[in-house]
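Protein Record: Sequence and Backbone Structure Tokens
======================================================

Structure line: whole-number tokens from a learned vocabulary of local backbone shapes, matched to residues.

Purpose: to set a sequence beside its fold so the mapping can be learned.

___
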Amino acid sequence: MNKGYFMGIDTGTFESKGVIIDQNCNIIAQYATKHGMENPKPNYFEHDAEAVWWHDFCEISNELLKKSGLNNGEILAVGASALGADCLPVDEECRPLRKAILYGIDARATEEMKWLTEYWGEEQIKKWFGRPLGSSDVMPKILWIKNNEPEVYEKTYKFLTGSSYITAKLTDEYVVDRFLGLASFNPLYDKNGIPNPETCKPICRPDQLAAVKNTVELAGVVTAKAAKETGLKEGTPVIVGTDDSGAEAISTGVLEVGDMMIQLGSTVYMILCTKNLVDDDRIWREEFIIPGTFDISAGTNTAGTLTRWYRDEVFVDYAEAEKQGGENAYQKMMAEIEEIPVGSDSLITLPYLAGERTPINDPFAKGMIFGLTMTHTRAHLYKSALESIAYSINSHFEIFDEHKVPINKVLAVGGGTKNPTWLQIIADVTGLEIQTAGVTVGASFGDALMAAMSINFFESFGDLAKIIKKGDVYRPNLENHEKYKEYQKIFNELYENNKELMHRLP
């Protein structure tokens, strides 16, 4: 094979990132750009697909080529991922008909979930999903558009998710990968990835759905129009792509049964590669990207968004000082908690400031700070917030243990890996080693690796294990772990004992 390079670009909740790698999988250029997220109403979260998703892709692609000094013809293949699963209706020209309804943090379709559960019956829903319907499912979001914006629904040519939209803009082909399509759009496709007229009937027309292909298959090639906007060469192969968490799992080294990723981004997303499907109301399960495997997946609604909230609302002075050229606010916040003991002097936070996905699946859950006394400071509050995310992660580990699902290694990735104190807290709470990857840029690196697979530079996912380097290892402090066990028990009970009161709040 002639010398060449591979590009990967990922669009996240607040930031988009891209990389170019060489044939030894070394990063030779990277670029990132930030964007916002709209929250027009409680439980409504949106992105402008044209102004955010496509704009970011074009900016990053052009900047990567500029920074690398490469000729665009040297890019052998491109991979894209995006936050998922979202719901974006587009017309026949791939023009968005409304702003994209985002993944599980958007919980507007609660009435549609109730209606669908009654329509199909709880038993059938359980058979399809292994759990009740949740805010991460696309089917209720499509039905919400149908019920509330009929003029949009009637004009919709395709209902896309983030990665589908970007791939369509690049290639004029409407595709979704099997990993994302069969799970998030369930049960609108059959097990072979063909739209099912019967299950589509109350939701949408079968022709309004994208075609299902495997993640690393070629979706098509860059069109002349997309080439002008992205700087890529017309005819460059583009893979089907996937959601950010799936690509991030691959980038981190989730390549065989027992491998697990904890993605510490704006939210937490977890993927554990398994041998079989595991049904439990509290978690999700689906086929994994790697053929012949499945996964347990789970997601919280806050992580980096919670630390951002503390910076902007509680440590306002630090945020202002940083804007004036001072020290990074997050670093100053971390320095303040160094002397705060395990359990934050008996302070426990429920991090449900935006409702919660797994394991409680309650969009109306509320945040809580429990155990406050006059001795607590904002440093205590912040450490308790970090601990709360660790408790939430560990509550999933307890579920995995109930089902006797093996975990061989736990791999951390995402922006949260820049915070070693947080990683140590997670190790101490879970009692497990937490390992970072040698390359921590995340999903965009996975996109580039899978782009290389698409043209057979790598023959299988197993080949990636040879080139994905290990990073730091955080080993649990067993004394701290024993202390955290008691706080974990209280954390688990706090929601159950207060959810009725939460739901009574207007």
